[in-house]
Amino acid sequence: MSFQSVPSVEEVSKWSPKNVITFLETKKDELFLRDRDIKVFEDNWVAGRAFLELSKDDLLASPYNLPDGPARAISGLIKDVKGEREAQKLRDEDEDDALYFSTIDMLQTPPEYIPSRWDLLLWLQKPPSTPVNIPPAMYNAYFRSRISPNILSQFFVTSDKASFRTWAECIQPIAKPPVIGTTEDSFHAFWDALIVNPFR
Fold first, then answer.
1. What domains, with CATH codes, occur in the chain?
2. CA-to-CA distance for 2 and 19, rounded, in angstroms?
3. Which InterPro entries does the entry mention (predicted)?
4. What is the pLDDT along the chain (200 residues), one digit of tens a residue?
5. Peptide bond between residue 63 and the one before it cis (omega within 30 degrees of 0)
6. Within the chain, how many helices (H) and strands (E) appear?
7. How deeply is 109 buried, as exposed, middle or buried, from its count of CB atoms within 10 A (0-12, 13-18, 19+)?
8. What is the pTM of this model?
9. Rounded distance, CA 105 to CA 127, Å?
10. What's the CA dihedral at 98, 104, 110, 115 to 10 degrees?
11. CA 109-110-112 angle, 5° bins
12. Max CA-CA distance within the chain?
């Protein structure tokens, strides 16, 4: 049997209990496992197929009764072998991309008119057609306690499904504008960061 960093499901499914123990021992330092955490698998004669079916809840319960730390570490390792964490990461990235592009499309809708410079402030204060979703931590830190809820809800709403990419590229310069100097060049950099880039 050859160990890779993370072996394939096909390989693990053919393992004997001894192979499972050997694998866990190779991951002992990386996962901060103790000998007694690994011995549980030996005592329960866990072969490869059974190993792949174990969840964190299984490992916390009888007959394994592992502490939370080892249970999380080993169940995470099983997910890595099965490719579940990578698949979830890809799903999260796809969802973030979809949210990002839908927000960008909404923000890039051509204006009904081009405002004069005297009307620019009023135009910039006009809410988007749909409030932009903001990650809860950023929403609470930068907006919730600083802006009236009646005004805030027209522009931004908190959501666990908010796109971090939208936040980083479009909203953060508004929430936390850069510090500027007093030269004309520094003013242009401020204008680009706060106005041009978010509305591009």
1. 9-82 (1.10.150.50), 90-199 (no CATH)
2. 10
3. SAM/pointed_sf
4. 333 467 888 899 999 999 999 999 999 999 999 999 999 999 999 999 999 999 999 999 999 999 999 999 999 999 888 886 665 666 667 777 777 777 777 767 776 777 777 777 777 677 888 888 888 888 888 888 778 888 888 888 888 888 878 877 777 777 776 666 666 665 666 666 656 665 55
5. yes
6. 15, 2
7. exposed
8. 0.44
9. 15
10. 160
11. 120
12. 78
Crossing angle of helices 17-26 and 35-43, in 10° steps, is 170
Residues in contact with 26: Cβ distance below 8 Å, sequence separation at least 6, in sequence order: 3
Q: Which two tokens stand for residue 19?
A: 């192979």
Helix, strand, coil share (%) of the chain residues, nearest 5: 65, 5, 35
Integer angstrom CA distances of residue 182 from 50, 72, 126, 179: 67, 53, 29, 10
- Identify the CA nearest to 38 among candidates 83, 77, 82: 77
Helix, strand, or coil here: 167? helix
CA-wise closest residue to 138 among 100, 102, 93, 173: 173
From residue 97, alpha-carbon distances to 162, 166, 184 in Å are 10, 9, 36
